[in-house]
């Protein structure tokens, strides 16, 4: 029972990290219609930054914040490449973000080498109802919960957040009332970078990160985001938590080598079920 | 008439090259031909039918593993060479039946996922040799004749390229080819004018997989070794880059794109291996080149290199006269 509980909590922590990446995808897709393939890259950049800054002797807290901001800058730059030029179709923008992800490989290898790097996080562990759980896992869960509350407040209560929501629901009407949809798109990319960076900083202490970790991260994030059809954050969160728990349980009960297949198979299944419930006409006009 | 002369010139150059190149240049020449073969399929799938596949490397791998397993099992290599594209096409039919219900970015991610699953399975199974892969694959040959020189492999490869281009040309000028172009613009409109959209999409997916499978089987005979590490996700992205650079939906464009990217990467590899360069230089340079070329072409030359060049040529001729 205690093993089950500790797998569950660990799984929730893994799911939270996936949820942060997936929510970045959702924010960018809602506002710009672009699926950002470089979303995992933001996490890798921030994670590697954090490990370097901590290695240079900067205090905890400061290094992590700086690393998350680096993620946001990476997001903004990706946005400039993907939607900076007018008339780029969403599918072309997807291919551009794919290119940005590969370009980031080159930059990351030059700056950090091709070996995995880790960073010290919160040490120690706590015991909850007989189950041992690392403090860092608890930190991941708490930060994710706080982030989702903040995002909900930002989109629901602030002027800027409402402008972003307006772009998401009807770009034409948003332009009519004087909202610069391109600037909002860039802002969405920066927020996506921030969320990806947060995920990267949180998971670097849990498992070492190297330049090509982004494929696993983006695939898991995308799998979670398709649960919410790439538009609904709350369902995305639920999807990410389910995915994290399912993967950790599979690993914990001895099917560790099939972790990736479980996640990917689930993602394909969800997409096919969703596609069969949508009509072609609807999809082609959107 | 001019087009025919141009085509003959290209064919003559292609046939003459293996005789004059040395072994290391021939290796590049063969890999270039293999990449062109896969890219023609990608170009057909993306350019004509409008379907994005980020997992074309999976069919390349299926072709290579099929030929390798058959050859190691004592089956004549020629049978393996024929079986590889058939097996790749059959697996595309099986995989494509559920997957091609998806569109746009969903399909892109699903095909990428398919390749990741396949690599992971190939790395764990006993009969595929796990992560180490299959080694000591016999040379290609027919009867008692064994193909041992690189030049012979170059001829085999480029014969494959010619076959693939011919098939693609015939498909694209036929009635189904026009139907494919119609469904790429709007599936609803195509379906309402009587085009069996699902069946055509599946057929073109299988055809492009067969091209990749053929390339994969030649690759396995040439190198004599296959492993999951030979087919990374980046290889599928590389085919997209080549197809986009050359110009989607043009047959020659795929070959031009494959040539341009292969020569560029090869040139940079030489620069990266110069004394005084850091050890990571070759991989960094090739990543950077793939990425920058892809981004710049998508943003500034969305129709690709070949259409952009050919459109410029006649206008200059017109200006002179």
UniProtKB/TrEMBL annotation, chain A:
CDD domains: TM_PBP1_LivH_like (cd06582)
InterPro entries attached to this UniProt entry: ABC_transp_permease, BCAA_transport_permease
Any GO BP annotation: amino acid transport
Superkingdom field: Bacteria
Keyword Transport: yes
Segments passing through the bilayer: 6-28, 40-59, 65-84, 91-113, 133-155, 185-206, 218-246, 258-276
Membrane topology value: Multi-pass membrane protein
Keywords assigned: Amino-acid transport, Cell membrane, Membrane, Transmembrane, Transmembrane helix, Transport
Location of the protein in the cell: Cell membrane
Main location: membrane
GO molecular function: transmembrane transporter activity
The UniProt record lists the keyword Transmembrane: yes
A GO cellular-component term linked to this record: plasma membrane
PANTHER family: ABC TRANSPORTER PERMEASE PROTEIN (PTHR11795:SF450), BRANCHED-CHAIN AMINO ACID TRANSPORT SYSTEM PERMEASE PROTEIN LIVH (PTHR11795)
Record family assignment: Belongs to the binding-protein-dependent transport system permease family. LivHM subfamily.
Protein known as: Branched-chain amino acid ABC transporter permease
Naturally occurring in which organism (per UniProt): Nonomuraea glycinis
TrEMBL record, chain B:
Keywords: Cell membrane, Membrane, Transmembrane, Transmembrane helix
Top-level lineage group: Bacteria
A GO CC term attached to the entry: plasma membrane
A molecular-function term among this protein's GO annotations: branched-chain amino acid transmembrane transporter activity
Main location as per UniProt: membrane
Matching InterPro entries: ABC_transp_permease, LivM-like
Membrane-spanning intervals of the chain: 26-46, 58-75, 81-100, 107-125, 152-171, 202-225, 231-248, 255-275, 287-310
Subcellular location: Cell membrane
Membrane topology: Multi-pass membrane protein
Pfam families: BPD_transp_2 (PF02653)
PANTHER family: HIGH-AFFINITY BRANCHED-CHAIN AMINO ACID TRANSPORT PROTEIN BRAE, HIGH-AFFINITY BRANCHED-CHAIN AMINO ACID TRANSPORT SYSTEM PERMEASE
Protein name, as recorded: Branched-chain amino acid ABC transporter permease
Encoding gene (name): livM
């Amino acid at each position: 029972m205690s093993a089950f509980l500790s797998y569950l909590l660990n799984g929730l922590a893994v799911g939270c990290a996936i949820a942060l990446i997936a929510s970045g995808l959702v924010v960018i897709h809602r506002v710009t219609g672009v699926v950002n393939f470089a979303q995992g890259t933001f996490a890798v950049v921030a994670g590697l930054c954090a490990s370097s800054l901590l290695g240079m002797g900067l205090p905890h807290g400061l290094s992590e914040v700086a690393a998350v901001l680096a993620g946001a800058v990476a997001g903004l730059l990706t946005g400039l490449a993907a939607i900076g030029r007018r008339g780029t179709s969403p599918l072309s923008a997807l291919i551009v973000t794919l290119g940005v992800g590969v370009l980031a490989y080159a930059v990351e290898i030059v700056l950090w080498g091709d070996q995995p790097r880790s960073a010290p996080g919160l040490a120690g562990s706590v015991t909850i109802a007989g189950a041992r759980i690392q403090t860092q896992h608890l930190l991941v869960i708490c930060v994710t919960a706080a982030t989702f509350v903040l995002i909900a407040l930002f989109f629901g209560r602030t002027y800027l957040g409402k402008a972003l929501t307006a772009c998401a629901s009807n770009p034409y009407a948003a332009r009519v009332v004087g909202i610069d949809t391109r600037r909002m798109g860039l802002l969405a990319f920066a927020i996506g970078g921030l969320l990806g960076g947060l995920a990267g900083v949180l998971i670097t202490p849990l498992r070492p990160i190297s330049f090509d970790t982004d494929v696993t991260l983006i695939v898991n994030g995308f799998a979670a985001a398709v649960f919410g059809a790439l538009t609904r954050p709350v369902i995305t969160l639920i999807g990410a938590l389910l995915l994290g728990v399912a993967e950790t349980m599979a690993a914990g009960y001895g099917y560790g080598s099939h972790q990736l297949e479980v996640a990917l198979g689930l993602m394909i299944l969800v997409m096919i079920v969703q596609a069969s419930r949508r009509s072609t006409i609807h999809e082609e006009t959107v | 008439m001019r087009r025919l002369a141009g085509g003959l010139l290209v064919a003559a150059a292609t046939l003459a090259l293996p005789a004059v190149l040395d072994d290391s240049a021939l290796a590049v020449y063969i890999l270039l031909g293999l990449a062109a073969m896969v890219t023609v399929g990608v170009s057909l799938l993306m350019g004509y039918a409008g379907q994005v596949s980020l997992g074309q490397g999976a069919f390349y791998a299926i072709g290579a593993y099929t030929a390798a397993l058959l050859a190691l099992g004592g089956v004549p290599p020629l049978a393996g060479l024929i079986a590889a594209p058939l097996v790749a096409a059959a697996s595309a039919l099986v995989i494509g039946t559920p997957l091609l219900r998806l569109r746009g970015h969903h399909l892109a991610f699903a095909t990428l996922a398919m390749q990741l699953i396949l690599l992971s399975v190939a790395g764990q199974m006993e009969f595929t040799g796990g992560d180490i892969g299959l080694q000591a694959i016999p040379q290609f040959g027919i009867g008692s004749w064994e193909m041992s020189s690189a030049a012979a492999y170059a001829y085999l490869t480029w014969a494959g390229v010619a076959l693939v281009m011919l098939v693609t040309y015939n498909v694209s000028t036929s009635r189904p080819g026009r139907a494919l172009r119609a469904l790429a613009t709007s599936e609803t409109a195509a379906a309402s004018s009587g085009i069996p959209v699902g069946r055509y999409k599946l057929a073109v997916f299988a055809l492009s997989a067969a091209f990749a499978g053929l390339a994969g089987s030649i690759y396995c005979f040439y190198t004599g070794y296959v492993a999951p590490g030979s087919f990374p996700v980046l290889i599928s992205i590389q085919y997209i880059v080549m197809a986009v650079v050359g110009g989607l939906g043009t047959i020659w464009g795929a070959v031009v794109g494959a040539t341009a990217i292969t020569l560029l990467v090869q040139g940079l590899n030489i620069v990266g291996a110069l004394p005084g360069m850091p050890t990571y230089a070759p991989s960094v340079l090739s990543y950077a080149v793939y990425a920058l070329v892809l981004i710049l072409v998508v943003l500034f030359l969305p129709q690709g290199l070949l259409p952009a060049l050919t459109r410029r040529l006649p206008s200059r001729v017109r200006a002179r006269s």
